[in-house]
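Subject: for your reference before the review

Hello V.,

The reviewers asked for a structural picture of the protein, and I figured it would be easier to keep everything in one thread rather than splitting it across files. Below is the amino acid sequence we used in the manuscript, unchanged from the supplementary table.
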Amino acid sequence: MVHAAKASHIGGCLSMADILAVLYTRILRVDPAEPQSPSRDRFVLSKGHATAIMYATLAECGFFSLTELDSYCRDGSIFTGHVSHAVPGVEVSTGSLGHGLPIAIGMALAARHAGAGSRVFCLLSDGECDEGSNWEGILFAPHHKLDNLCVVVDFNKIQSFGSVAEVLNLDPFAEKWQAFGWQVEEIDGHDLAALERVLSGVPAASGRPTVVIAHTVKGKGVSFMENKLEWHYRSPSDELLAQALAEVGA
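And here is what came back from the structure prediction:
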């Protein structure tokens, strides 16, 4: 998809592929036949620029045909370069960083007031945690005891213009969330069993929202992309596409 559209953000898509695979095959109570079911769990992709992997996941899960992805990032397509709620299975359009978590918190609060059993999962990037709006939300959610909310941070250590440590160091990251009153889990974000174990336990603590700090690798699975800043933006050539597909076993 990214190669055909000459698009970008493939590195950040690959870092979160395992997270989405576990969420959509093991955790989320969602039904492609009833994507607007009132009882569904909600998933908000706050790092909305990593849209290709979100659309691919939804297609693989049956929300729409894989062939529809041929229009990705083309003029007039609903499959835009930042995730769009026009696509079946997408709850909200995102991409302006720092907005997804506040929206997810609103969804969790609404579900609580309605007495619904729905859970809300929100996937953040690590660089996105530079945004002050997130930290307002991180303070707000424990105050309202939103234990139906789970945040997953795709902690691949690289953001758009450099490493996270260089641009705006987040350390001590887990301790910050703990100080704000969250239940904190820290795992290898490519360990499928660990992801399933932690995510299936949501709510993890009564009266407290959960954050899963998932340590990941930008460009995971493709040797020339792993931990390389340029693959936040680059689109693979024909030759590099062939190599990448071979390395991931496609």
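For the response letter, the relevant points are probably these. The chain has a mean pLDDT of 97. The radius of gyration is 17 Å.

Happy to draft the paragraph if you're swamped.

O.
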